[in-house]
Write a structure and sequence with these properties.
Keywords: Hydrolase, Metal-binding, NAD, Transferase, Zinc. By secondary structure, the chain is an alpha/beta fold. It is built from eight helices and nine strands. About 30% of the residues lie in helices and about 15% in strands.
Length: about 260
């Protein structure tokens, strides 16, 4: 595929759904989870802190979780070429909707309208009380952690505070996922970018899109369970491949 050469699967595409995973943010310095240098690859025991039942039951687990996010790379990260490529595709006039497994908020930092980004696994930029459900900026909780409170309680009701992300053992928000399914069904092209496609039900959006007639293109370093459904699988680095793909789609739209 040349710089603006459009493959057959990109012809006459006006509606694009993009399913993004941790791989799209690694070039921004945000580590993924399962890759060679992933968070859980380097420290398998840390995965325990991402289990809802363990998080809720053990103050030590919660303390370890908060320490992990205290110095998280995402707080210093900026969008990379892959994120910006999707924003440029939106500005080219295509109907773009981003369905992201990421919680880092980097898509929105490109200037794309927040309504066009569906955060399937929540956001690390908010904290929710598991008791009274009050939401506060994460910075407030992390300030307390840094000051020596390892497991801050809700200042309103004393309940357990949790990052506003979906942990293992939690269900996705039903309304959010139903909206994602509708977007996948309405798309002509679904780009799955930087996701292992091993976490369900989000990965099943690939099947939803294909069954509704969309073309599936996967951009990922490693094989995924959905590769056989794809019209093309791209193994190049995301920050190289995605700008080329979106430039071709955008040029076809404006040409």
């Amino acid at each position: 595929m040349n710089e603006v050469a459009l493959p057959e699967w990109g012809r006459d595409v006006r509606r694009v759904a993009v399913l993004t995973g941790a791989g799209i943010s690694t070039d921004s310095g945000v580590p993924d989870y399962r890759g060679p240098d992933g968070v859980w690859t380097r420290d398998p025991a840390l995965a325990d802190a991402f289990r809802y039942d363990r998080f809720m039951a053990d103050p030590e687990v919660r303390a370890r979780f908060w320490r992990t996010y205290l110095g998280h790379a995402a707080w210093r990260a900026e969008p990379n070429a892959g994120h910006h490529a999707l924003a440029e595709l939106d500005r080219a006039g295509l109907a773009v909707r981003i369905l992201t497994q990421n919680v880092d908020g980097l898509h929105q930092m490109t200037g794309i309208a927040p309504r066009k980004v569906l955060e399937l696994h929540g956001s690390m930029r908010s904290v929710v009380c598991t008791g009274c459900r009050a939401r506060t900026p994460t910075s407030e909780t992390l300030t307390r952690v840094a000051a020596g409170d390892p497991d801050p309680a809700c200042p309103a009701c004393g309940g357990i505070l949790k990052l506003a992300v979906v942990l293992f053992g939690q269900h996705l928000d039903q309304d959010t996922f139903a909206q994602a399914e509708k977007i996948a069904e309405a798309s002509q092209l679904l780009l799955a970018v930087g996701s292992s496609l091993q976490v369900e039900p989000v990965a099943s959006l690939c099947r939803v899109a294909v069954r509704a007639g969309a073309r599936l293109v996967i951009v990922n370093r490693d094989p995924t369970p959905y590769d056989a459904m794809a019209v093309e699988v791209v193994r190049e680095p995301i920050s190289t491949a995605l700008p080329r793909i979106t430039a071709a789609l955008g040029a076809a739209r404006t040409g």
